[in-house]
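G.,

No rush on this.
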Amino acid sequence: MADDDGYGFHLGHDDDDAVEPSAYAPEGEDDADGLDERTMNLDEGFEPTTSAVMMLKRAWVLERLCPEMRAYAASTFEDVRTRTDARVEQLERRARERAESGGGGAEEESEKLMDHLMWIEVNRVRYIMREYLRTRLHKIETHALHVLTDADTFAKLSEAEQKFAEGYIEALQGHFEDVLKDLPEGYRDMMVEYSGEADEEATAQKMIPKPNLDAFVIFRMREDVPNFVQPNGETIELERGQVMLAQYSRFRDLLAFDPPKAELV
């Protein structure tokens, strides 16, 4: 029997055959509801794609695989956190009530088992939340100067992440001041290769690590995109379910749609 876990999907399936998405059925065969496999979402056989947890999971995976910073998924993250906090409060209250009642019947044992399963799910969701934030903090640390000096990238951060980036740079500057003070005067700026050069601004840009937008990533198309125009002006036909290894910069525009027309895998 499937039990609602409070996150918009079920802990189990009434039918084991439902675990496998119909999108992976043999080509040309329709699913049980009479829908062609190409009209089905690639993941909906596993978990509803509109659930807050699935949306946060997708944001985490995309953040991990994307060379550049993605916009902070504020509404999704807060929705998941609110639901998780409410479920934790409910589980803790039920545990207190069982302890106060001093029961031990079959019904209480069944409830304890279900609560244990709920705690497993809560911990899974908490892991996704932590890893999403840790992934973003790691990217901020890796390209801290770029994040702080590029207005578009800085705007993608949450308020807490913006404060973290500013504090990280302050600490980094303090460290470099202690390290670089013994070097010749022209080499004491952590952002400029040599302060005696004519074009210090251009040199400073060279010293700021930036994301490699030409890095190769794996795209999977979520829908058909006819006549997609690449940055070089060439047109290409993209089909749903198509997987391709390509430079991120060539197809990054596909991720800008809501919902995105492609995903990184």
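When you get to it, here's the other one too:
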Amino acid sequence: MSIEQLQYIVEIAKTGSISNAAQNLHISQAAISKAVSNLEEELGVTLFKRSRSGTVPTEESVQLIRKAFEIVIKLQEFREEAQIQTATIQGDFKFSAIPSYFMTILPKTFSKFIKEFPEINVQMTEKETFEILNEVKQNQIDFGLIASFEPELLDQEEFLFDILLEGKVQVFVSKNSPLAYCDTLTPPELVNETLVTYNGSTISSFINDFFNKYGAMKILFTSNNTEVIKKNVAEGLAIYFNYDLGQSSHHYVVNGDIVPIPLVGHDRTNIFFGLVRSKKKYFSAAAREFIKQLKQQIAKGDY
């Protein structure tokens, strides 16, 4: 039995596929299959079986593979402890984040981080919450930066969710709209308005919940382009629901063309921005350092 064989079976268990495990580990599929077969022969246990959902552990191997997970994580911790002792943080990591982070916290955090650790390769991708959760589940990324109305549902057996910021949903209206003179807005005051919507999973869930409780609103259009959305709001063609994170510095708001107004009288306006990661994937020292700097940036309020 070798460390490599344990790493192979852990990766197969994580990905549910021998071919995907081989790709992630940069070895051939034939080599990983032979290594697993040799380990099965040594242990006298069949480790995996094929099913409709992919390659999955057998009932006899579940505990063995859980132990293999623990050993592999301890080995990673051992290696990183050696790095810490030599005052170096090494290794690459990748993550995905919703657009709100790229427009606010991430630029300054990333700029500072790469100056301090130029040897670390960081891969960032902009995606929506639903896509990010799937990537975390499939162990394709080290962590995700998302928004959720119900963070307690994420902090379950499969995921860990660390709240970084709390925000509110606001209503964005044209300065020429009669609504612009309101200090707050309630759902009954909005149901007859025309809406433009952002095509994101989190805000879409908010809008669906709003429609279910108060009735459907007329939708002018749906877009992934926030500039197009805000242009139409500024022109008075529609209103717009969005988070408050980073909106106060947007040029339409700064210029006064769009007015953000708090939404009250609705039980789903608190939005939680946070880090989501898999309990089954080791959180590297490089990733931990990045999140530490991200939290420091948030604490400063400089975004």
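The two ends are 51 Å apart (CA to CA). The CA atoms of residues 241 and 258 lie 12 Å apart.

Enjoy the weekend,
O.
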